[in-house]
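Structure in, sequence out. Go:
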């Protein structure tokens, strides 16, 4: 949506609210104040005008990506007035561009897009916005802020920072502590951000050294192979941070096969398998740092609010924010019951 349009909507809504407030101040009707409060665009779950949301999600070839799709679909189903137009998930940028163009041609009210490649899909995001279709950009960010109205995603740097801080606190009294990192795909910006956050956290603990790092591919097989290499090379380990719970399944296999249990392990993302292991407390896996797929449900909520001219419940602003970064909570056996319902398969 162009900035001028946003200003018109903001000032127009503000004028309506100001008018309602003036009436409340001058009227003797005791209901006037309540009417003034309800005149604003606060979000709610009451059915509004019919809305068609186009959802261009990823190929569900990974537990977290599948959870993204399921969260979007289940949230949309909660609203009787929302119709969700979904595409067949794709990791091929050309195919996904074509899918988004189809949704634009269908004249959906709002688009929610998790791009296979944010930079590559920026142009089609711009195309949608210029066509008057607001875009909610999910997770992998477009190269231009003009290509989306709102971005919703996880905190990759914070994920690494919180994992490193948790490990640091567990090992702060251990002299010469040795830590290894099982990263994700190294050419992804998110992997670089997670590693940077982890490194920055460890700087606060002078007794801890990051002695080895291996990049895996977010798969069970790669996690097992790369963890086996780390175990073979490092005869002493005090903690492992693994960026992704899917590849963590393989990492745990390698650890069990090697008969190693002298260290603690922290996972990443929040898979149900990881949470089950943390709750059982029968392996080296003691915590996982969330990267919540519930962001897709939030994206649907925001898309609905955009289409219906609503704000966000609990906020004073008349319009939804331009960005929403989710918090990467550390899940341990102490708080596992709180987060277990969010675990994904």
């Amino acid at each position: 949506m162009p900035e001028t349009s946003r200003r018109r909507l903001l000032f127009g809504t503000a004028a309506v609210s100001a008018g309602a407030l003036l009436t409340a101040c001058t009227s003797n009707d005791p209901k006037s104040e309540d009417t003034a409060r309800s005149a604003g665009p606060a979000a709610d779950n009451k059915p509004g005008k019919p809305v068609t949301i186009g959802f261009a999600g990823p190929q569900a070839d990974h537990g977290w990506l599948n959870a993204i799709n399921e969260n979007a679909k289940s949230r949309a189903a909660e609203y009787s007035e929302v119709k969700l137009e979904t595409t067949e998930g794709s990791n091929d940028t050309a195919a996904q561009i074509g899918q988004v163009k189809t949704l634009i041609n269908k004249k959906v009210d709002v688009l929610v897009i998790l791009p296979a490649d944010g930079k590559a899909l920026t142009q089609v995001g711009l195309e949608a916005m210029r066509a008057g279709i607001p875009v909610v950009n999910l997770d992998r960010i477009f190269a231009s802020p003009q290509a989306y109205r709102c971005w919703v995603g996880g905190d990759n740097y914070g994920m690494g920072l919180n994992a490193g801080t948790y490990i640091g606190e567990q090992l702060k009294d251990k002299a010469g502590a040795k830590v290894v990192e099982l990263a994700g795909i190294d050419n992804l910006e998110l992997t670089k951000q997670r590693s940077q956050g982890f490194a920055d956290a460890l700087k606060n603990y002078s007794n801890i050294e990051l002695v080895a790092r291996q990049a895996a591919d977010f798969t069970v097989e790669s996690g097992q192979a790369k963890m086996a290499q780390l175990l073979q090379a490092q005869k002493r380990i005090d903690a492992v941070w693994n960026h992704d719970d899917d590849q963590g399944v393989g990492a745990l296999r390698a650890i069990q096969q090697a008969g190693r249990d002298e260290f603690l392990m922290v996972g990443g993302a929040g898979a149900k398998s990881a949470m089950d292991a943390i709750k059982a407390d029968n392996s080296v896996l003691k915590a996982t740092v969330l990267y919540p797929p519930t962001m897709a449900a939030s994206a649907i909520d925001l898309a609905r609010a955009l289409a219906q001219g609503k704000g966000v419940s609990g906020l004073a602003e008349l319009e939804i924010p331009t960005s929403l970064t989710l918090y990467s909570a550390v899940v341990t056996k102490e708080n596992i019951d709180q987060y277990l319902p969010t675990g994904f398969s």
